[in-house]
Design brief:
The complex is a heterodimer of chains A (533) and B (241). Chain A has 533 residues and is of the alpha+beta class. Chain A has three domains: 106 residues, no CATH class; 144 residues, GAF domain (Beta-Lactamase, 2-Layer Sandwich), CATH 3.30.450.40; 147 residues, Heat Shock Protein 90 (2-Layer Sandwich). In chain A, helix 2 runs antiparallel to helix 3, helix 7 packs across helix 11 and helix 9 packs antiparallel against helix 11. Chain B has 241 residues and is of the alpha/beta class. Chain B is built from nine helices and 14 strands. In chain B, helix 3 runs parallel beside helix 4. Chain B is globular and about 50 Å long. Classes of the chains: A alpha+beta (533), B alpha/beta (241).
């Protein structure tokens, strides 16, 4: 800087000497020095401009005013010129420096606001802090010319590194950091040395050496900016300075401070959102629990009431019970107990699904063998209707759990029994495609509107159209179907049936075809009609 | 045991091991009304004392007892006799059922059960002990189905079935122990021996093929339900019609 100013002053002196020489004959060439002052001011700022102005004043005084080579000025008019020159030089220098400084300040501010804008944008567009924070850290490293940025959230005793611009490398731990102190009001933030109360990322092992082997200055090269939102401490934004770099300048300091504020707000917002979601989940779980209680208290009590009434009348010494009426009362008790049993089984199945305690034992099973017995077993509740089973012999085996598959098919058939009263036909069919086996249960009932179909698979859904009265279920049959199907790696869907009612399709993975059975066992008797191939 | 072999189902001697008194009382009363002689026990220790003192013909066993597991009783009995054991078990406890069957139990009924079903199972177990599976000519008969063990031929109404070796072995194993619920592991051991690792996964597929052949050989459908699956536990052979 000094050399350049000297050079410019020397050039100005030569030009002025030339202009004042007998060749050109200009009397006063002092304004040439203004050029030097302007150059110094616009290139280096106010102070160099002032130094240049004074140097120019001295040079001109020494070289161009009589008597030469002294500061003495003999002519009072020249004195006036000289003083005016100095005043003008100072003003010109200051003005040119101001313009340059403003321009530099403006471009600094532009860079700063573009950095801040980028950070706000990241925080606003990313779905959560976990995905936003690493990008913010990256940006800060670049815009703040820092070595590394990491962001730590603190919730009570738990700390968590939300982001790290240099993931994987051990975090520098240090007992002393350079902390940013921000005071309320207009006082500018400033950096002070501070003790790290409890290095959250404490790694006692060799924090003293940086990656390049240089000794990290005793903690001073780690910056810490506290993050707070709504007066709640959120954590810290930390930065490692580049080796040998000085304390960050005002712009970087402001960038770090504002970034810390924005991060704090974003983390706080994420926390609040998570809490709200948890509250909502808990509220829904509560709602479902009370729905279960309602359902259980109604549906379990009804059969219990019948059983107690029936048993009471059998036990009543005042009532003379003949054998026939005793038998019919007992049959009623039996039927109610059966109903109770089914309800209890549903509740147990559901709670096992919800507890995630189904541990399916998947093995190749033949779908036809699973469907047939279920339909036979449930025939009494299906009433008199047309029942069609069309399961091709060549269907590949499914990979399923025998107990769950049985329960799944039972629930599907019971669902038809409940919601599509006879004589609505029932059809169970199966097909296979691309390593999957699809079981479809069609009924000829009144069906379910498209809008309700997805909701059917949720718990406690008793859709309008369900048969009111004693035979309604808990509304969890299809939720059980879905839970069991998904536990076996399958999917379930509902659509309109060609029979007019509802079609529910269960899609399960197929098992590889069974090996051919040609291994002879023991000795095959040479029977005339060989039956053992 | 030898006495029970000749004894008719009626008057057979049952040991009922069940800790719930109301349940035990009701079941005992019903079975007594059907002519069985009942000995009751409420825990493992008492059950073993009764077993030692009375040597019943059939044991009805609840698995969850206050002083221990019912399987302890099964193992103890199996050291000394082949007396049929019928397990009374709760729903959803398939692994417990399998463990009990593997320990030597013959069959199970799931609580809550109907008394008629319980009596049918007891009768089936008594019939099994009443006679050898194969008659003097070495044939096992089950309704219209006959297995000639010596010639390895299974036939329906004298018409031979076209079975593969595995299918034949499966059918023979099941029919040799009618009324007994055979676990998957037991069938695998009986039919595939120790080398069942690969094909054994396909037990259900083999059973399915066997069923289809039986159904095809028997147009009136009485053999369609010969082999009854107990999902998650194993297979049993239905009572002869």
């Amino acid at each position: 800087m000094g050399g350049l100013i000297a050079l410019v002053l020397a050039l100005a002196t030569i030009v002025a000497a030339f202009l004042e020489s007998s060749v050109v004959g200009i009397l006063d060439a002092s304004p040439v020095y203004f050029v030097a002052v302007v150059v110094a001011g616009s290139a280096f700022g106010t102070l160099p401009a002032l130094v240049t102005a004074i140097a120019a004043f001295a040079l001109y005084d020494l070289l161009f005013t009589t008597p030469h080579l002294t500061f003495v000025v003999s002519d009072p008019k020249e004195w006036l010129d000289l003083v005016l020159f100095l005043v003008l030089a100072v003003v010109v220098g200051r003005l040119s420096a101001l313009g340059t400084e403003r321009a530099a300040e403006a471009s600094r501010r532009a860079a700063e606001s573009s950095a801040l804008f980028a950070i706000s944008r990241i925080l606003a567009t990313e779905p959560d802090i976990e995905s936003a924070a690493p990008q913010v850290a990256e940006r800060l490293v670049r815009d703040g010319s820092l070595d590394r940025i990491w962001i730590i959230s603190e919730r009570g005793q738990r700390t968590h590194v939300v982001a790290d611009s240099n993931p994987g490398a051990p975090l520098p731990g240090s007992a002393i950091v350079t902390a940013l102190v921000r005071t309320p009001g207009d006082a500018p933030a400033h950096w002070v040395r501070a003790h790290e109360p409890r290095p959250p990322e404490a790694r006692p092992a060799e924090p003293k050496r940086a990656a390049d082997g240089s000794r990290i200055a005793h903690g001073g090269s780690i910056l810490r900016v506290r993050m707070e939102a709504d007066g709640v401490p959120i954590g810290s934004l930390k930065a490692a300075l580049r080796p040998g770099a000085p304390e960050p300048d005002r712009a970087t300091t402001r960038l770090l401070a504002l970034a810390a504020d924005q991060l704090a707000l974003a983390i706080r917002r994420d926390d609040l959102r998570r809490e709200a979601t948890e509250v909502e989940i808990a509220r829904r779980a509560d709602a479902q629990k009370s729905a279960l209680l309602d359902a259980v208290s109604h549906d379990l009590r009804t059969p219990l009431a019948s059983i107690r009434a029936a048993a009471g009348s059998l036990a009543d010494p005042e009532v003379s019970v003949d054998a026939a009426s005793a038998r019919s009362t007992a049959a009623a008790i039996d039927a109610e107990a059966d109903r109770l049993d089914r309800l209890v089984r549903e509740v147990l199945d559901l709670s096992r699904i919800e507890a995630g305690s189904l541990s399916p034992e998947l093995e190749p099973l033949v779908l036809a063998d699973a469907v047939g017995p279920v339909v036979d077993r449930l025939r009494p509740i299906l009433g008199s209707r047309r029942i069609t089973l069309s399961i091709p012999d060549e269907l590949p085996p499914v990979r399923a759990d025998a107990v769950l598959l049985d329960g799944l098919i039972s629930n599907l058939v019971e669902n038809v029994a409940r919601h599509a009263p006879p004589p609505a036909p029932l059809e169970l069919s199966a097909s296979s495609e691309g390593g999957r086996v699809r079981l479809a249960v069609d009924d000829g009932g009144s069906g379910v509107p498209v809008a309700e179909r997805e909701r059917m698979f949720e718990k406690f859904q008793r859709l309008p159209g369900a048969i009111e009265g004693s035979r309604r279920g808990l509304g969890i049959g299809l939720a059980i179907v879905r839970g069991m199907t998904e536990a076996m790696g399958g999917t379930v869907s509902a659509s309109e049936s060609a029979l007019g009612g509802l079609r529910i399709e269960v899609d399960l993975p197929a098992a590889a075809a069974a090996p051919a059975d040609a291994t002879p066992v023991g000795t095959v008797a040479p029977a005339s009609q060989s039956t053992v191939r | 045991m030898s006495g029970a072999l000749a004894a008719p189902a009626r008057g057979a001697h049952l040991l009922l091991v069940e800790d719930d008194e109301a349940m035990r009382g009701t079941v005992a009363a019903n079975l007594a009304a059907h002519g069985y002689r009942i000995v009751e026990a409420g825990d493992v220790a008492e059950a073993i004392r009764r077993w030692d003192a009375e040597r019943p013909d059939v044991i009805l066993l609840d698995l969850g007892l206050p002083d221990g597991e019912g399987t302890t009783i099964i193992r103890r009995v199996r050291r000394e006799a082949t007396t049929p054991i019928l397990v009374l078990s709760a729903r959803g406890a398939e692994p417990d059922k399998v463990a009990a069957l593997e320990a030597g139990a013959d069959d199970y009924v799931t609580k809550p059960f109907g008394l008629a079903e319980l009596r049918a199972r007891i009768a089936a177990l008594l019939r099994r002990t009443a006679g050898p599976a194969a008659d003097r000519s070495g044939a096992i008969r089950h309704g219209r189905l006959t297995i000639d063990v010596a010639r390895r031929i299974a036939s329906v109404d004298e018409e031979p079935l076209d079975l593969t070796p595995r299918e034949y072995e499966l059918l023979r194993t099941m029919l040799s122990q009618p009324g007994r619920l055979l676990t998957k592991a037991r069938l695998l051991r009986a039919v595939w021996g120790t080398a069942y690792a690969d094909e054994g996964h396909y037990l259900h597929v083999y059973v399915s093929r066997l069923r289809r052949k039986l159904a095809a050989a028997d147009p009136d459908g009485s053999l369609r339900d010969l082999i009854v699956a107990e999902p998650g536990v194993g297979y049993r052979v239905a009572e002869p019609p």
